[in-house]
């Protein structure tokens, strides 16, 4: 409903602009749309289920912008996870060109190159605000593009979840000891940290977590936060909901574009894509911030046990995260991103630790 209204207002804006542009020019030439604007139909493979209107929906928002901005000449069809491409094979499909576009989380591909983690999030890494500032203004996007160039891909930020929850546990976690032997769904470097803390780590696409948790194939699972997690029904199969998701302080999703396909676009189509992707980035975080608070309230009211991770879990996670993140630095390309990323985080934390943090810690305790 909201999206319809949003698209409609965009369309009205575009129509008004074209009427204004035509006023009083006396220009009788054919509109540029017929000569410079080829009719294109692209396919986008998403790593996410259609039911997740926040994370999947961002790709639809992007496609709507591109459609409107090109007068309907450039259309992008979004396919949910598993329909034409499996959730964790989006990068390969864009690389091969079997789809022109993907929307995914780069940390699904750390098996190819651990440095892909930096494009999503790392344990105790950048928050959403810090990631966007690093990507758009701190050279972060350029560094990640050097990495993606090896795969024939150009990447763009594609939405952020904000700081995530620490996930659902069927048993209470009272100390580090309680993690040992647990089977948990958790991707990225966070999964590697959990593995070293004694957890049996599993990679499962979002749409398949619920049955695994219900059947007891896994004892714990993390996805994103209250709104999505409630939608996926995790509260029906696990009682304990822990925070914070220290492994995802601000998870960035990525749009991946096949480089050859990108280079073949007219400049105004490239601009439309880029504008649509930035709109999607704004949409996702603001939408999560709108829908998570009431979802959190509903979960707590319906009996979910909401708990902070014990202090020894947080302390061990912090130390082990640092070790694991440091281990990748034997690779020069990883080391280069690692240094830039952490300099940005530390400088940012010194700033956000002043006004932002003082304000939040005062107000949130009132
Ligand atoms: Ca997550």
Polypeptide structure, described:
α1 runs parallel beside α3 and α3 packs antiparallel against α11. α7 links the parallel β6 and β7. The protein is globular and about 65 Å long. The N terminus is likely disordered. The strands form 2 sheets. The chain has a 6-stranded mixed beta sheet with strand order 7-6-8-5-9-11, covered by helices on one side. The protein has a 5-stranded mixed beta sheet with strand order 2-1-3-10-4, sandwiched between helices. The longest helix has 35 residues. The protein has 366 residues and is of the alpha/beta class. It contains 14 helices and 11 strands. The site of calcium ion has 5 residues, from loops.
Tell me the overall shape. Answer: globular
- Main-sheet strand order equals 7-6-8-5-9-11
Task: Give the % helix.
Answer: 40-55%
Let me know the average pLDDT.
Answer: 92
| Total helical segments | 14
Per DSSP, what share of the residues sits in E-state strands of 2 or more residues?
5-15%
The major pleated sheet works out as: 6 strands, mixed
Class per helix and strand makeup: alpha/beta
């Amino acid at each position: 409903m909201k999206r319809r209204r949003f698209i409609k207002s965009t369309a009205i804006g575009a129509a008004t602009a074209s009427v204004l542009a035509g006023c009083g020019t006396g220009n009788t030439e054919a509109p540029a749309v017929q000569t410079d604007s080829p009719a294109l139909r692209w396919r986008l493979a998403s790593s996410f289920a259609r039911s997740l209107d926040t994370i999947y929906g961002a790709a639809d928002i992007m496609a709507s912008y591109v459609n409107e901005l090109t007068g309907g000449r450039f259309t992008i069809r979004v396919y949910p996870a598993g329909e034409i491409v499996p959730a964790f094979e989006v990068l390969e499909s864009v690389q091969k060109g079997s789809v022109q576009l993907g929307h995914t989380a780069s940390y699904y591909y750390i098996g190819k190159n651990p440095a892909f983690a930096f494009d999503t999030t790392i344990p105790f890494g950048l928050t959403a605000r810090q990631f966007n500032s690093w990507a758009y203004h701190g050279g972060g996007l350029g560094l990640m593009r050097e990495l993606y160039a090896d795969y024939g891909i150009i990447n763009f930020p594609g939405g952020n979840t904000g700081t995530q929850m620490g996930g659902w546990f069927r048993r209470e976690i009272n100390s580090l000891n309680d993690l040992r032997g647990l089977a948990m769904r958790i991707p990225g470097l966070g999964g590697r940290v959990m593995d070293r803390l004694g957890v049996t780590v599993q990679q499962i696409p979002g749409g398949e977590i619920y049955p695994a948790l219900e059947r007891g194939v896994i004892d714990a699972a993390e996805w994103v936060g209250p709104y999505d997690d409630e939608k996926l029904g995790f509260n029906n199969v696990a009682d304990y909901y822990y925070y914070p998701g220290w492994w995802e302080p601000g998870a960035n999703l990525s749009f991946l574009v096949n480089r050859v396909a990108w280079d073949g676009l007219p400049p105004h189509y490239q601009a439309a894509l880029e504008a649509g992707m930035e709109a999607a980035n704004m949409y996702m975080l603001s939408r999560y911030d709108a829908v998570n608070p009431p979802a959190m309230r509903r979960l707590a009211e319906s009996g979910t046990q909401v708990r902070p991770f014990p202090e020894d879990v947080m302390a061990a996670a912090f130390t082990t995260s640092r070790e694991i993140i440091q281990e990748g630095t034997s690779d020069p390309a990883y080391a280069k991103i690692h240094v830039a990323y952490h300099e940005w985080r530390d400088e940012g934390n010194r700033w956000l630790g002043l006004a932002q943090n003082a304000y939040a810690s005062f107000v949130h305790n009132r």
